Amino acid sequence: DLIRLAEQAYHYLVVYRKHTAEPLYLGRTKRLASKAQRLLLYHRDRGCTRPGCTQAACHCQAHHAEPSWNNGGLTDAPTLALGCGPDNRLAEMGWTTSIDHDTGRTHWHPPPLMDTGGDTLNHHFHPEEFLDPPGEDNPCQNA
């Protein structure tokens, strides 16, 4: 009976963060993000990742950003992003998301007919992106 049941199961290795029992990589064994994954998303994304949205992290859901759950997405920390309820459902209406693996930031791409060439990143929770980098040619830092 056990072998018969196991042939239908998804077999994945669970990787834990350092010496805790908090999994960050769940594969397709679970659809919902774990507590540790949500804490990581709160720190990294700070709020909804769709451009123009100002919903704080505490009002967001874990979104399978790359690829979506319906397209085989995994519940692994690097492939998740925060999205408020209405924005998370945009994935069902043709919106796609991708993750810049250098920065960890999530890009939202509208359906082709709605694409006006706007910014694909939400800068609301990352105002430091608009600051000049520290350096000698920055007159405000030398004052």
Give a structural overview.
This protein is of the alpha+beta class. It has one domain (2-117). 14% of the residues lie in helices and 16% in strands. It has helices at residues 2-6, 35-45, 85-88; strands spanning 15-16, 23-25, 60-64, 80-84, 96-99, 106-109. The strands form three sheets. A two-stranded antiparallel ribbon has the order 1-2. A two-stranded antiparallel ribbon has the order 3-4. The protein has a two-stranded antiparallel sheet with strand order 5-6. 24% of the residues are buried. The mean pLDDT is 84.
For this entry, give a set of tags.
two-stranded antiparallel sheet, 143 residues, globular, alpha+beta, 3 helices, 14% helix, two-stranded antiparallel ribbon
Class of secondary structure makeup? alpha+beta
Domain module count: 1
Alpha-carbon Rg, integer: 18 Å
Give the fraction of residues assigned to helices.
10-25%
Please provide the count of β strands.
6
Shape: globular
Number of helices: 3
SS strand fraction: 15-25%
Poorly predicted sequence stretches spanning 5 or more consecutive residues: none
Mean pLDDT, to the nearest integer, reads 84
Strand order of the largest sheet: 1-2
Q: What series of H and E elements makes up the topology?
A: HEEHEEHEE
- Tell me the quaternary state: single chain
Question: What's the end-to-end separation, in Å?
Answer: 75 Å
The profile of the biggest β sheet is: 2 strands, antiparallel
